Amino acid sequence: MSIALISAADSNIGKVRSSNQDSGYAGYRMFFVADGMGGHAGGDIASAITAQRMAQMDAEYATADDAGASVLARILETNQLLTETVANHEYLSGMGTTFSGVVFVEDKAVLAHIGDSRIYLCRDGETKQVTTDHTFVQRLVEMGRITEDEALVHPRRNVLLRVIGDSNEPPQLDFNVLVTKPGDRWMMCSDGLNGYVSDAIIHMNLSSEQTPEEVVDVLIGEALEAGAPDNVTVVVVDTVPAELSSVIERTAKFVGSAVNDVVVNDVKAKSKTKDSQDRQFISESGEDFNRIINETERSVQFRKLRQIALILSITGLVVVAAWFGYSYTQTKFYVAESGGQVSIYKGIREELLGFKFSQVYKTTDLSLMSLPAYQQQLVAKTIYATDIADAYRIIDRLKASVPVE
């Protein structure tokens, strides 16, 4: 089944960064985002080179396999180009980029993904992420070392395990082919969106009746409202019945760094600005990965031990406080009724969660019914004593109030 495509794309530098290292593309059959890394000097170059070269593959393909093979071949060529660029310009060392894109072939969507940018699909009112983040923390989640909530605040959350760029290993992309249909809405975004805008807000907008352009504008606005500490790039594609293709204005559009010509200065040395949120790349098969895994294990174990120690300390304080509190109650006495007899109680009359803080200390031979009505009411309501001697004096006074027959 043939489909037509309506798309929109935009990119924003955000409120903190001094340059936009994101690139995006909304074309005829191909759509993608590329989020550069490598500091101020290299991130924008890496994403722009990748975007401009990948956009050349925006074409009609006979099959999904053909599209996937062409995309992979161009990714490998681009990776080689980035590696050579770094070799010739040392100040670009460490530069790389993510890539998350879709090529539409008839009713097939060919997904190519590497890094931590994302692809979402909204269908029949349900939105789901259809890519997996290639990050250190996501790997820890998959290994059961940390929870998804812990991943959000983990100190290594900016470490990537797969990128295109300055690496000793060829890029390992995830490829997937999904069937698409009219009414589907696809979104590609850099982590400047999903890192600061909740899944609920993303779903609310993707499932709305807004146009792709409106959705892009609103979501970038949400990222800016959240502080936008990172660049944010969003590409939205709606699939519609093929018969609408004649009324759809189709133009290809670059956004972000890819809008500009790529210029690599011939500089022998250049300082690289380091930002606390700049991402790093480590190979999953390298020594650094195992070292960080071990560091994380020790950190998790230490945190658990610290939590256990804290719980034990708090529990100990609660037990000590409870013991002192209970001991204090056992210095108190009062007079009340027990089994129809006037009795002396040790403790206080209050209860907590069904636990009583008093017990009968002595049951006297004085019957409650033998007392005058007023004294019966006093005993029924409880007569508090200052100590045990005072409790016995209260008993003596009650006995003295019994009428003589």
TrEMBL record:
**Which protein is depicted?**
Unannotated protein
What is the protein's species of origin? freshwater metagenome
Q: What region holds the PPM-type phosphatase domain?
A: 6-239
What are the entry keywords?
Membrane, Transmembrane, Transmembrane helix
Which GO molecular function entries does the Swiss-Prot or TrEMBL record give? protein serine/threonine phosphatase activity
Where do the TM regions start and end? 308-326
Q: Which Pfam families match?
A: PP2C_2
Q: Quick check: keyword NADP in the entry?
A: no
